[in-house]
Amino acid sequence: MGFFGDPRTEGILRFCAIIGLILTVCLLGFDKQTTQIFHVDKKATFRSLRSLIVIMYVNSVAAGYNLLQLCKCWISAQPKLGASKLGAHYDIYIFWISFFLDQAIAYVIFAANTAGVEAALLAITGAYNLQWMKLCNRFTRFCFQAGGAFLCGYAASLTMAAISFISAFNLFTHYSPSHFLRPKSK
Amino acid sequence: MGFFGDPRTEGILRFCAIIGLILTVCLLGFDKQTTQIFHVDKKATFRSLRSLIVIMYVNSVAAGYNLLQLCKCWISAQPKLGASKLGAHYDIYIFWISFFLDQAIAYVIFAANTAGVEAALLAITGAYNLQWMKLCNRFTRFCFQAGGAFLCGYAASLTMAAISFISAFNLFTHYSPSHFLRPKSK
């Protein structure tokens, strides 16, 4: 099946993506700090910012999806259970679904992470014109842990981009370049 | 060349993307409002929020890139000037470069827009725990115009996703499914 089509390559990448996604979720989930602002106790958790909540949900869903795909890779890596037994017709559907879901998840994870980083940058610098004050000088540990989570999230989204590259390869190499979506004859 | 491989399909999509990108840039660029907060005049422009500045730059670069690609599509649509004259070897390089750039730009536009929407949502609801106040009840017109800009930006990033789909098709249909990156024999 070559390097790209090999389910083991895909499996390893998906495993790395799952690790990155779970690390992000854990780092954000256990990130709590309480501090005083204007003599009032303020507690920062991931629930304080909508973008962090979104990252938690998106990354959990993506980790679950990758776990399912990992099972698929494991099944196709078994010589006796290989999906090819079910016929090339069935393979093509799987490739299309994988292609769309991988693309969508890669986009969504990348965008959610970037939105999180954007909110974090607002917390570091504040927005003077808009009367939003700097917060990371008060919630220092919280901000560092969130930064670590974003790094893991970006690693995971790079891995997802590579996976979506592979699934595009797996899908489109089965089509002829000169005809609209006509599968190649063997 | 079929529907996907047809440079006209790609050209039309790229033209739509350019329109969307330029609309976003114009709507954000001309978005200004001054209002009083605590008896101080505060002016909101796209320069007040880093994410809006990033959207301006990213979308301008993407529009320029799509304009260049539009020229390429126009050249390949001319029967006499077609890139095929330069040989299939040259075509493959163009396909690889287009594939990577289209993917990268689609990801970056989508992420930049989402970061902008995230900042806009913060402005609509505020973040009570973090002492960031609501702003859209004071800068209403500004917020509506920014919302329109985000809609155009999302339309443009959907178009870019379709374009990157086409460029993946153009690239990978030239490769064999069973060998790692080995071009197909005719």
From TrEMBL, chains A, B:
Residues 9-158 form the Casparian strip membrane protein domain. Keywords: Cell membrane, Membrane, Transmembrane, Transmembrane helix. One of its GO terms (cellular component) is plasma membrane. It is a multi-pass membrane protein. InterPro entries: CASP/CASPL, CASP_dom. It is found in: Cell membrane. Its main location: membrane. It holds the Pfam family CASP_dom. The chain crosses the membrane at residues 12-30, 51-68, 104-130, 142-172. NCBIfam families: A_tha_TIGR01569. Belongs to the Casparian strip membrane proteins (CASP) family. Homodimer and heterodimers. This is CASP-like protein. It comes from Momordica charantia (Bitter gourd).
